[in-house]
Specification:
Length: 331
Amino acid sequence: MFVAPTAFRAIKQADPTASFAAKYDLSTLKGLFLAGEHSDPATLHYCKKILAKYGDVVDPVDHWWMTELGWPGVGNALGLGRMPLRYGACTAPVPGYDISVVNESGDKVSPGELGDMVIKTPLPPGTLTTLYNNEDGYVQSYLSRYPGFFDTGDAALIDEDGYIHVMGRTDDIINTAGHRLSTGGLEEIVQSHAEVAECAVIPVKDDIKGEVPVGFVVVNQGSSMEHDRLKDELIKLVRNELGPVASFKKVAIVKKLPKTRSGKILRGESFVQVPRRFVPFTSANSYLIRFSLLGTMSKIANGESYKITPTVEDPDIFTYLEPEIHRLMES
């Protein structure tokens, strides 16, 4: 089964102890693949809890790919022999991909160091070869920043054992007082709290530190924890894991977060190719438009104008979230 992690977060919100799954025989399930967005360790632990009685053969598999690639680039290739589950990692490159993590100069970073994930060219068969009638746009978007490599636009780290941890879009890297922080990494910490069903961390401008992270949390159904206490615990949790450098001091408890029509929380910016007739101000035959749901939340927090992406599931979500965001920023 292939499913977005958001689906299991929604299940966890309604059934935190995974008791409902015990009513059914899931022994015929041989593979559970999580895809479409970053899967935090807490969600993997929850899936493991559901499937634990069936043994390691159905350990959840987190993997990574892009629409542009056409097939997975990082994952646990079961046909080659299942690799041990490592929470927070997408496992290893799939055959056909030579993947590295580099710094802004294009040099490979040390194991465990966050950087930009790139794929050595040429790419294997079946991947995106160009953009229709927009060769220049293709080269500029994917091949120019790191010559000889395809720029995935994702931030990642490779640990000492070669496991790849995809932390989210490079747009989601927060520069706080000169320190690069991953919103995906911050979300992993917040998500690890037992009362949290799902969460999102966005960058907000700060006059002194440049940017600071701000969190939004949806709690499990039936949670009786007082919200102020939960906020304090989440702030302390991040401080204990990352130290005061994270500057994580603001959290809001909300009823829901913005999602795409496919049910994913769209954390970073994505490209949508639009025909020229819909974008008359460009001379190209097609135009790449950036859309971001959490980017919209950042704009609201920063007091900037914003447009609602057509990929959003519920267009009224920002009518609900805007006063919540303003209230948090004024606190």
